[in-house]
Design goal:
Layout (H helix, E strand, L loop, with lengths): L23 H16 L4 E6 L6 H16 L2 E6 L6 H18 L1 H11 L3 E5 L2 E4 L1 H11 L2 H13 L11 E6 L8 H16 L6 E7 L1 H10 L3 H4 L1 E4 L5 H13 L4 E2 L1 H11 L3 H14 L4 E2 L1 H19 L2 H8 L4 H9 L6 E3 H5 L4 H16 L3 E3 L5 E4 L2 H15 L1
Parallel strand pairs: 1-6, 1-7, 2-5, 5-6, 8-9
Antiparallel strand pairs: 3-4, 10-12, 11-12
This protein binds adenosine-5'-diphosphate and magnesium ion.
Length: about 400
Protein backbone atom coordinates (compact mmCIF):
# COMPACT_ATOMS: atom_id res chain seq x y z
CA UNK A 1 0.00 0.00 0.00
CA UNK A 2 1.24 3.46 -0.87
CA UNK A 3 1.90 5.92 1.92
CA UNK A 4 -0.38 8.90 2.05
CA UNK A 5 0.87 12.49 1.94
CA UNK A 6 -0.31 14.99 4.55
CA UNK A 7 -4.10 15.16 4.55
CA UNK A 8 -5.00 18.73 3.48
CA UNK A 9 -8.61 18.57 4.68
CA UNK A 10 -9.80 19.89 8.01
CA UNK A 11 -13.34 18.82 8.71
CA UNK A 12 -14.37 20.49 11.95
CA UNK A 13 -11.63 23.10 12.18
CA UNK A 14 -11.59 26.63 10.85
CA UNK A 15 -9.64 26.61 7.64
CA UNK A 16 -6.04 27.65 7.24
CA UNK A 17 -5.37 30.75 5.19
CA UNK A 18 -3.78 28.81 2.30
CA UNK A 19 -6.86 26.63 1.71
CA UNK A 20 -9.33 29.42 2.24
CA UNK A 21 -11.47 30.05 -0.88
CA UNK A 22 -14.01 32.68 -1.94
CA UNK A 23 -15.63 35.28 0.30
CA UNK A 24 -14.09 38.19 -1.57
CA UNK A 25 -17.08 40.49 -1.06
CA UNK A 26 -17.39 39.68 2.65
CA UNK A 27 -13.68 40.11 3.25
CA UNK A 28 -13.60 43.43 1.45
CA UNK A 29 -16.60 44.63 3.43
CA UNK A 30 -15.15 43.70 6.81
CA UNK A 31 -11.65 44.95 6.03
CA UNK A 32 -12.71 48.23 4.42
CA UNK A 33 -15.60 49.24 6.64
CA UNK A 34 -14.38 47.56 9.80
CA UNK A 35 -10.70 46.88 10.21
CA UNK A 36 -9.44 49.85 8.22
CA UNK A 37 -11.87 52.29 9.84
CA UNK A 38 -10.87 51.04 13.25
CA UNK A 39 -7.23 51.40 12.32
CA UNK A 40 -8.13 55.03 11.54
CA UNK A 41 -9.47 55.36 15.08
CA UNK A 42 -13.17 54.59 14.67
CA UNK A 43 -15.01 51.89 16.65
CA UNK A 44 -16.96 49.48 14.38
CA UNK A 45 -19.18 46.42 14.95
CA UNK A 46 -20.22 43.52 12.72
CA UNK A 47 -22.30 40.37 12.88
CA UNK A 48 -21.11 37.49 10.67
CA UNK A 49 -24.32 35.67 10.08
CA UNK A 50 -24.80 32.16 8.73
CA UNK A 51 -25.68 28.58 9.46
CA UNK A 52 -23.52 26.05 11.25
CA UNK A 53 -20.51 25.03 9.22
CA UNK A 54 -20.93 27.72 6.58
CA UNK A 55 -17.56 29.30 7.43
CA UNK A 56 -18.11 32.16 9.89
CA UNK A 57 -15.15 31.34 12.14
CA UNK A 58 -12.91 30.78 9.13
CA UNK A 59 -13.88 34.16 7.68
CA UNK A 60 -13.29 35.86 11.03
CA UNK A 61 -9.87 34.22 11.36
CA UNK A 62 -8.91 35.17 7.84
CA UNK A 63 -9.77 38.82 8.48
CA UNK A 64 -8.09 38.69 11.90
CA UNK A 65 -4.82 37.73 10.23
CA UNK A 66 -5.13 40.67 7.84
CA UNK A 67 -6.08 43.01 10.69
CA UNK A 68 -2.91 42.03 12.49
CA UNK A 69 -0.50 41.92 9.57
CA UNK A 70 -1.66 44.86 7.49
CA UNK A 71 -3.08 47.19 10.12
CA UNK A 72 -1.25 46.21 13.28
CA UNK A 73 -4.44 45.65 15.29
CA UNK A 74 -4.24 43.26 18.20
CA UNK A 75 -6.58 40.38 17.36
CA UNK A 76 -8.43 38.61 20.15
CA UNK A 77 -10.72 35.64 19.48
CA UNK A 78 -12.99 34.47 22.26
CA UNK A 79 -15.40 31.56 21.93
CA UNK A 80 -18.62 31.95 23.88
CA UNK A 81 -19.42 28.24 23.46
CA UNK A 82 -20.85 26.80 26.64
CA UNK A 83 -21.24 30.20 28.33
CA UNK A 84 -24.63 30.96 29.79
CA UNK A 85 -24.17 34.22 31.66
CA UNK A 86 -22.11 37.40 31.68
CA UNK A 87 -19.67 36.02 34.18
CA UNK A 88 -18.84 33.19 31.77
CA UNK A 89 -18.56 35.72 28.95
CA UNK A 90 -16.15 37.80 31.03
CA UNK A 91 -14.10 34.72 31.76
CA UNK A 92 -13.90 33.68 28.12
CA UNK A 93 -12.91 37.17 27.00
CA UNK A 94 -10.29 37.52 29.70
CA UNK A 95 -8.72 34.18 28.76
CA UNK A 96 -8.65 35.25 25.13
CA UNK A 97 -7.04 38.58 26.04
CA UNK A 98 -4.29 36.91 28.03
CA UNK A 99 -3.62 34.47 25.21
CA UNK A 100 -3.59 37.20 22.56
CA UNK A 101 -1.29 39.40 24.62
CA UNK A 102 1.02 36.49 25.24
CA UNK A 103 1.27 35.69 21.53
CA UNK A 104 2.38 39.26 20.87
CA UNK A 105 5.91 39.28 22.27
CA UNK A 106 6.61 43.02 22.45
CA UNK A 107 3.20 43.56 24.05
CA UNK A 108 3.60 40.75 26.57
CA UNK A 109 6.84 42.20 27.85
CA UNK A 110 5.02 45.39 28.71
CA UNK A 111 1.89 43.89 30.26
CA UNK A 112 3.42 41.08 32.28
CA UNK A 113 2.95 43.02 35.49
CA UNK A 114 -0.82 43.33 34.96
CA UNK A 115 -1.70 40.15 33.07
CA UNK A 116 1.11 37.93 34.32
CA UNK A 117 -0.87 36.84 37.36
CA UNK A 118 -3.36 34.99 35.11
CA UNK A 119 -0.60 32.77 33.78
CA UNK A 120 0.65 29.77 35.72
CA UNK A 121 3.42 28.91 33.36
CA UNK A 122 4.38 29.88 29.87
CA UNK A 123 6.57 28.37 27.23
CA UNK A 124 7.30 28.87 23.58
CA UNK A 125 4.06 27.24 22.53
CA UNK A 126 1.60 29.07 24.70
CA UNK A 127 0.34 29.68 28.18
CA UNK A 128 -1.08 27.61 30.96
CA UNK A 129 -3.74 29.86 32.46
CA UNK A 130 -4.45 30.22 36.14
CA UNK A 131 -8.17 29.55 35.97
CA UNK A 132 -8.81 30.46 39.61
CA UNK A 133 -7.31 33.89 39.12
CA UNK A 134 -9.29 34.33 35.92
CA UNK A 135 -12.54 33.28 37.58
CA UNK A 136 -11.93 35.79 40.40
CA UNK A 137 -11.52 38.62 37.94
CA UNK A 138 -14.31 37.56 35.56
CA UNK A 139 -17.25 39.31 37.22
CA UNK A 140 -15.36 42.58 37.34
CA UNK A 141 -14.49 42.06 33.72
CA UNK A 142 -18.11 41.64 32.64
CA UNK A 143 -18.59 45.24 33.75
CA UNK A 144 -18.70 47.57 30.75
CA UNK A 145 -16.51 50.26 32.27
CA UNK A 146 -13.75 47.87 33.33
CA UNK A 147 -13.98 46.03 30.04
CA UNK A 148 -13.34 49.21 28.04
CA UNK A 149 -10.62 50.50 30.33
CA UNK A 150 -8.81 47.15 30.18
CA UNK A 151 -8.83 47.31 26.39
CA UNK A 152 -7.69 50.92 26.54
CA UNK A 153 -4.73 50.03 28.75
CA UNK A 154 -3.82 47.10 26.53
CA UNK A 155 -3.85 49.31 23.44
CA UNK A 156 -1.63 51.86 25.15
CA UNK A 157 1.08 49.20 25.36
CA UNK A 158 0.90 48.18 21.70
CA UNK A 159 3.76 49.26 19.46
CA UNK A 160 2.89 52.40 17.51
CA UNK A 161 2.43 52.29 13.73
CA UNK A 162 3.05 55.39 11.67
CA UNK A 163 -0.13 55.34 9.57
CA UNK A 164 -2.59 53.57 11.84
CA UNK A 165 -4.10 54.03 15.25
CA UNK A 166 -3.41 51.27 17.69
CA UNK A 167 -6.55 49.18 18.17
CA UNK A 168 -8.21 45.84 18.71
CA UNK A 169 -9.99 43.33 16.48
CA UNK A 170 -12.20 41.37 18.87
CA UNK A 171 -14.10 38.28 17.70
CA UNK A 172 -16.83 36.86 19.92
CA UNK A 173 -17.45 33.50 18.28
CA UNK A 174 -20.17 30.91 18.90
CA UNK A 175 -22.56 33.23 20.65
CA UNK A 176 -25.45 30.82 20.06
CA UNK A 177 -25.77 29.69 23.68
CA UNK A 178 -25.34 33.03 25.37
CA UNK A 179 -27.63 34.89 22.94
CA UNK A 180 -30.60 33.70 25.01
CA UNK A 181 -29.30 35.67 28.00
CA UNK A 182 -30.77 39.22 28.00
CA UNK A 183 -27.79 40.53 29.96
CA UNK A 184 -25.54 39.66 27.01
CA UNK A 185 -27.52 41.88 24.64
CA UNK A 186 -27.34 44.72 27.17
CA UNK A 187 -23.61 44.16 27.60
CA UNK A 188 -23.00 44.46 23.86
CA UNK A 189 -25.11 47.55 23.47
CA UNK A 190 -23.49 49.03 26.57
CA UNK A 191 -20.00 48.56 25.17
CA UNK A 192 -20.85 50.24 21.89
CA UNK A 193 -22.72 53.15 23.48
CA UNK A 194 -20.27 53.84 26.26
CA UNK A 195 -17.40 53.72 23.81
CA UNK A 196 -19.16 56.04 21.36
CA UNK A 197 -19.66 58.66 24.08
CA UNK A 198 -16.24 58.33 25.66
CA UNK A 199 -13.81 61.24 25.44
CA UNK A 200 -11.15 58.81 24.35
CA UNK A 201 -12.75 56.09 22.28
CA UNK A 202 -11.27 52.60 22.11
CA UNK A 203 -10.48 51.77 18.47
CA UNK A 204 -12.34 48.47 18.60
CA UNK A 205 -13.58 46.38 15.68
CA UNK A 206 -16.07 44.02 17.31
CA UNK A 207 -17.13 40.94 15.34
CA UNK A 208 -19.82 38.50 16.46
CA UNK A 209 -20.41 35.12 14.78
CA UNK A 210 -23.79 33.41 14.94
CA UNK A 211 -26.87 32.17 13.14
CA UNK A 212 -29.65 34.50 11.95
CA UNK A 213 -31.93 33.11 14.65
CA UNK A 214 -29.51 34.09 17.38
CA UNK A 215 -29.17 37.61 16.08
CA UNK A 216 -32.92 37.93 16.14
CA UNK A 217 -32.91 36.57 19.66
CA UNK A 218 -30.44 39.25 20.75
CA UNK A 219 -32.67 41.89 19.23
CA UNK A 220 -35.75 40.40 20.89
CA UNK A 221 -33.91 40.63 24.21
CA UNK A 222 -32.88 44.22 23.69
CA UNK A 223 -34.26 45.95 20.62
CA UNK A 224 -31.54 48.62 20.09
CA UNK A 225 -29.02 45.82 19.43
CA UNK A 226 -30.58 45.66 15.98
CA UNK A 227 -28.94 48.96 15.09
CA UNK A 228 -25.41 48.45 16.34
CA UNK A 229 -24.21 45.72 14.00
CA UNK A 230 -23.45 45.85 10.34
CA UNK A 231 -24.63 42.38 9.27
CA UNK A 232 -22.45 40.39 6.89
CA UNK A 233 -24.18 37.34 5.53
CA UNK A 234 -22.01 34.31 4.91
CA UNK A 235 -23.60 32.42 2.02
CA UNK A 236 -22.79 28.96 0.61
CA UNK A 237 -19.76 28.87 -1.67
CA UNK A 238 -20.45 29.07 -5.40
CA UNK A 239 -19.79 26.09 -7.66
CA UNK A 240 -16.68 27.83 -9.02
CA UNK A 241 -15.36 28.41 -5.49
CA UNK A 242 -16.08 24.79 -4.50
CA UNK A 243 -14.22 23.67 -7.61
CA UNK A 244 -11.28 25.85 -6.71
CA UNK A 245 -11.35 24.44 -3.19
CA UNK A 246 -10.98 20.81 -4.34
CA UNK A 247 -8.46 21.58 -7.04
CA UNK A 248 -6.30 23.64 -4.74
CA UNK A 249 -6.49 21.27 -1.77
CA UNK A 250 -5.55 18.19 -3.78
CA UNK A 251 -2.87 20.13 -5.62
CA UNK A 252 -1.10 20.96 -2.36
CA UNK A 253 -0.36 17.24 -1.96
CA UNK A 254 0.29 16.49 -5.64
CA UNK A 255 -3.02 14.79 -6.21
CA UNK A 256 -5.50 15.68 -8.92
CA UNK A 257 -9.20 15.27 -9.60
CA UNK A 258 -10.69 14.08 -12.89
CA UNK A 259 -13.29 16.46 -14.35
CA UNK A 260 -16.32 14.17 -13.88
CA UNK A 261 -15.25 13.37 -10.32
CA UNK A 262 -14.83 17.08 -9.63
CA UNK A 263 -18.34 17.78 -10.94
CA UNK A 264 -19.69 15.14 -8.63
CA UNK A 265 -17.87 16.44 -5.53
CA UNK A 266 -18.87 20.02 -6.26
CA UNK A 267 -22.50 19.09 -6.77
CA UNK A 268 -22.76 17.05 -3.59
CA UNK A 269 -20.82 19.57 -1.54
CA UNK A 270 -23.73 21.95 -2.22
CA UNK A 271 -21.53 24.93 -1.39
CA UNK A 272 -21.35 23.99 2.31
CA UNK A 273 -17.70 24.27 3.38
CA UNK A 274 -18.06 21.68 6.12
CA UNK A 275 -19.37 19.14 3.62
CA UNK A 276 -16.68 20.02 1.07
CA UNK A 277 -14.08 19.14 3.70
CA UNK A 278 -15.84 15.91 4.62
CA UNK A 279 -16.04 14.87 0.97
CA UNK A 280 -12.43 15.82 0.33
CA UNK A 281 -11.31 13.96 3.43
CA UNK A 282 -13.10 10.77 2.38
CA UNK A 283 -11.85 10.97 -1.21
CA UNK A 284 -8.32 11.52 0.06
CA UNK A 285 -8.40 8.26 2.04
CA UNK A 286 -10.30 6.20 -0.52
CA UNK A 287 -8.03 7.05 -3.43
CA UNK A 288 -5.16 4.66 -4.16
CA UNK A 289 -3.34 6.22 -7.11
CA UNK A 290 -3.15 9.97 -6.57
CA UNK A 291 -5.95 10.64 -9.04
CA UNK A 292 -9.49 11.09 -7.75
CA UNK A 293 -11.73 9.47 -10.38
CA UNK A 294 -15.51 9.15 -10.51
CA UNK A 295 -15.52 5.87 -8.58
CA UNK A 296 -13.47 7.48 -5.77
CA UNK A 297 -15.82 10.45 -5.72
CA UNK A 298 -18.89 8.24 -5.52
CA UNK A 299 -17.47 6.16 -2.67
CA UNK A 300 -16.50 9.38 -0.90
CA UNK A 301 -20.06 10.57 -1.24
CA UNK A 302 -21.50 7.42 0.35
CA UNK A 303 -19.00 7.57 3.22
CA UNK A 304 -19.48 11.27 3.81
CA UNK A 305 -23.26 10.86 3.83
CA UNK A 306 -23.05 8.12 6.45
CA UNK A 307 -20.60 10.14 8.53
CA UNK A 308 -22.63 13.28 8.18
CA UNK A 309 -25.90 11.65 9.13
CA UNK A 310 -24.54 10.07 12.28
CA UNK A 311 -22.93 13.34 13.30
CA UNK A 312 -25.66 15.82 12.54
CA UNK A 313 -28.93 13.95 12.35
CA UNK A 314 -30.36 12.56 15.58
CA UNK A 315 -30.98 8.79 15.87
CA UNK A 316 -34.73 9.20 16.03
CA UNK A 317 -34.88 11.22 12.84
CA UNK A 318 -32.47 8.81 11.24
CA UNK A 319 -34.68 5.84 12.05
CA UNK A 320 -37.61 7.61 10.42
CA UNK A 321 -35.59 8.46 7.35
CA UNK A 322 -34.46 4.87 7.00
CA UNK A 323 -38.03 3.59 6.83
CA UNK A 324 -38.84 2.22 3.39
CA UNK A 325 -42.13 4.12 3.43
CA UNK A 326 -40.35 7.44 2.94
CA UNK A 327 -37.88 6.40 0.28
CA UNK A 328 -39.69 7.86 -2.71
CA UNK A 329 -40.42 11.07 -0.83
CA UNK A 330 -36.79 11.51 0.17
CA UNK A 331 -35.71 10.85 -3.37
CA UNK A 332 -38.03 13.58 -4.56
CA UNK A 333 -36.82 16.06 -1.96
CA UNK A 334 -33.29 15.09 -2.92
CA UNK A 335 -34.06 15.95 -6.52
CA UNK A 336 -34.71 19.57 -5.61
CA UNK A 337 -31.91 22.12 -5.44
CA UNK A 338 -30.06 21.38 -2.17
CA UNK A 339 -29.13 25.02 -1.74
CA UNK A 340 -32.77 25.94 -1.20
CA UNK A 341 -33.59 25.81 2.50
CA UNK A 342 -37.26 25.22 1.69
CA UNK A 343 -39.48 23.37 -0.78
CA UNK A 344 -43.07 23.46 -1.97
CA UNK A 345 -45.20 20.52 -0.93
CA UNK A 346 -46.74 20.49 -4.42
CA UNK A 347 -43.31 19.95 -6.00
CA UNK A 348 -42.95 16.75 -3.99
CA UNK A 349 -46.55 15.62 -4.37
CA UNK A 350 -46.41 15.98 -8.15
CA UNK A 351 -46.35 12.58 -9.78
CA UNK A 352 -46.78 10.66 -6.52
CA UNK A 353 -49.52 8.04 -6.36
CA UNK A 354 -52.41 8.50 -3.95
CA UNK A 355 -50.96 6.17 -1.32
CA UNK A 356 -47.70 8.01 -1.46
CA UNK A 357 -49.37 11.39 -1.12
CA UNK A 358 -50.82 10.20 2.14
CA UNK A 359 -47.32 9.17 3.21
CA UNK A 360 -46.06 12.61 2.26
CA UNK A 361 -48.60 14.23 4.57
CA UNK A 362 -47.51 11.85 7.38
CA UNK A 363 -43.86 12.55 6.64
CA UNK A 364 -44.30 16.31 6.87
CA UNK A 365 -46.17 16.02 10.16
CA UNK A 366 -43.52 13.69 11.62
CA UNK A 367 -40.68 15.97 10.55
CA UNK A 368 -42.55 18.90 12.06
CA UNK A 369 -42.92 17.04 15.37
CA UNK A 370 -39.23 16.21 15.31
CA UNK A 371 -38.37 19.88 14.66
CA UNK A 372 -36.74 19.10 11.34
CA UNK A 373 -39.24 21.06 9.26
CA UNK A 374 -41.53 23.98 9.89
CA UNK A 375 -44.24 25.52 7.75
CA UNK A 376 -43.05 28.57 5.83
CA UNK A 377 -44.87 31.84 5.28
CA UNK A 378 -46.04 30.90 1.76
CA UNK A 379 -48.84 28.42 1.36
CA UNK A 380 -47.54 24.87 0.96
CA UNK A 381 -43.99 25.92 1.75
CA UNK A 382 -41.87 23.81 4.11
CA UNK A 383 -38.61 25.04 5.57
CA UNK A 384 -35.74 23.07 7.07
CA UNK A 385 -34.96 24.36 10.57
CA UNK A 386 -31.29 23.52 10.10
CA UNK A 387 -29.94 23.63 6.56
CA UNK A 388 -27.33 21.04 7.57
CA UNK A 389 -30.10 18.52 8.12
CA UNK A 390 -31.51 19.43 4.75
CA UNK A 391 -28.17 18.61 3.19
CA UNK A 392 -27.93 15.41 5.21
CA UNK A 393 -31.26 14.21 3.88
CA UNK A 394 -30.12 15.05 0.43
CA UNK A 395 -26.82 13.22 0.76
CA UNK A 396 -28.58 10.37 2.47
CA UNK A 397 -31.11 9.86 -0.29
CA UNK A 398 -28.52 10.24 -3.06
CA UNK A 399 -26.10 7.85 -1.44
CA UNK A 400 -28.93 5.37 -0.85
CA UNK A 401 -29.56 5.23 -4.59
CA UNK A 402 -26.04 4.43 -5.52
N1 LIG B 1 -13.74 29.88 2.79
C1 LIG B 1 -13.42 28.61 3.11
N2 LIG B 1 -12.55 27.90 2.34
C2 LIG B 1 -12.22 26.63 2.66
N3 LIG B 1 -12.72 25.96 3.72
C3 LIG B 1 -13.60 26.60 4.53
C4 LIG B 1 -13.98 27.95 4.26
N4 LIG B 1 -14.85 28.34 5.21
C5 LIG B 1 -14.99 27.29 6.04
N5 LIG B 1 -14.24 26.23 5.66
C6 LIG B 1 -14.20 24.92 6.33
O1 LIG B 1 -15.55 24.53 6.59
C7 LIG B 1 -15.71 24.01 7.89
C8 LIG B 1 -16.65 24.90 8.71
O2 LIG B 1 -16.08 26.18 8.83
P1 LIG B 1 -16.24 27.11 10.12
O3 LIG B 1 -15.49 28.36 9.85
O4 LIG B 1 -15.90 26.34 11.35
O5 LIG B 1 -17.82 27.38 10.08
P2 LIG B 1 -18.79 28.08 11.15
O6 LIG B 1 -17.95 28.90 12.05
O7 LIG B 1 -19.73 28.90 10.32
O8 LIG B 1 -19.50 26.96 11.84
C9 LIG B 1 -14.31 23.91 8.48
O9 LIG B 1 -13.84 22.59 8.24
C10 LIG B 1 -13.50 24.93 7.70
O10 LIG B 1 -12.16 24.52 7.59
MG1 LIG C 1 -17.61 28.63 14.02
Amino acid sequence: MTEKPRNPFLPGQPTTVDLFVGRQAQIRHLLERGVRQTALGKPTAFFLEGEYGIGKSSLANYCAAAAEEEFGLLTITASMAGQKDLRGVGEAILKAIVQAAHRHRPLWKRVTTTLGRFVKSANLFGVDLDLDEIAKEAAHFADIGSFLSTLQRLIAELPTRAEWHRGIFLVLDEINGVAAEPAFAHFLKGIIDRNALAAERVPLCLVLCGTPERRHQLIANHQPVGRIFDVIEVPPLSAAESREFFERSFQTVDMRVEPDALDQLVQFGSGQPRILHMLGDQAFWIDQDGVIDLADANSALVQAAADFTTRYVGPQILAELRSAAYRSILTKIAGIDPLQPSFQKSAIADGLEDGERKKLADFLQRMKQLNVLRQGSDKGEWVFNTPMVRTAIWLFAKAGQG
